[in-house]
Amino acid sequence: MEPGLGGVRIPLLVLLAGVALVTGCGSEGPKSRVGIPPVGASPQEVVTAYVAAINAHDKEAGRRLSTPHFAQQQEGGEDDQFRNIVEISHLQVQTPLSNGGHESADGKRYQDAVYVPVTFILKQREVVSMPNGHTAWGYILVRTGADQPWRINDHGVG
Prior knowledge:
Pfam families: DUF4829
Order of helices and strands: HHHHHEEEEEEE
Protein name: DUF4829 domain-containing protein
Number of domains: 1
């Protein structure tokens, strides 16, 4: 047996492989799971849960809190909220503003729609479409009936 191949080298390689495996596995999955608000939850509660899902990198919760069209728009890309955003802090969710007759980018029209303005401090891995720091933003939430849950259908300013 050659000198240096026994004792210390193999345990060190096993340790390094274990660290790489643990580090690699944590980068794609959620930090934690976010609960989905009940059907009767307010638009503000849905927005708060959605931001919690972004902070937790919980894409599944983000999908469940969104319309299928919005969820599909958010998938992948360099500006993927669930991968690029490190943290949204100091979230202030304001009173919803009626946005009745909202026409979605996918052609659907929702009579029951609101715009929920928010402000927060944004910290991203990479600055892509908006700068880090204090941000004024908002979410359009829709539902198909009073007995249905509010879901995020768009986001932006105004």
